[in-house]
Design goal:
Blueprint (H helix, E strand, L loop, with lengths): L1 H8 L4 H26 L6 E2 L2 E2 L14
């Protein structure tokens, strides 16, 4: 928490601020992708390789008996 406080108190230019925020956002997205890779979780909108979106139901061209 001390590092965050130090970062918040530091004077910086707009360019440095945007670079810092961009690095933070990239870090968050990178960590979430790494966690997904390590846990082996698939996209929750897909099951058994079939999409649940448009075209996934009986009216989308797939017949169910």
């Amino acid at each position: 928490m001390n590092k965050l406080n130090h970062l918040m108190q530091k004077e910086m230019t707009r360019k440095e601020f945007l670079a810092t925020v961009g690095f933070g956002v990239a870090t968050l997205f990178g960590l979430s992708a790494l966690i997904k890779l390590l846990t082996g979780k698939e996209n929750p909108l897909q099951q058994n390789g079939k999409s649940l979106g448009y075209g996934g139901g009986a009216y989308g061209g797939e017949r169910r008996s």
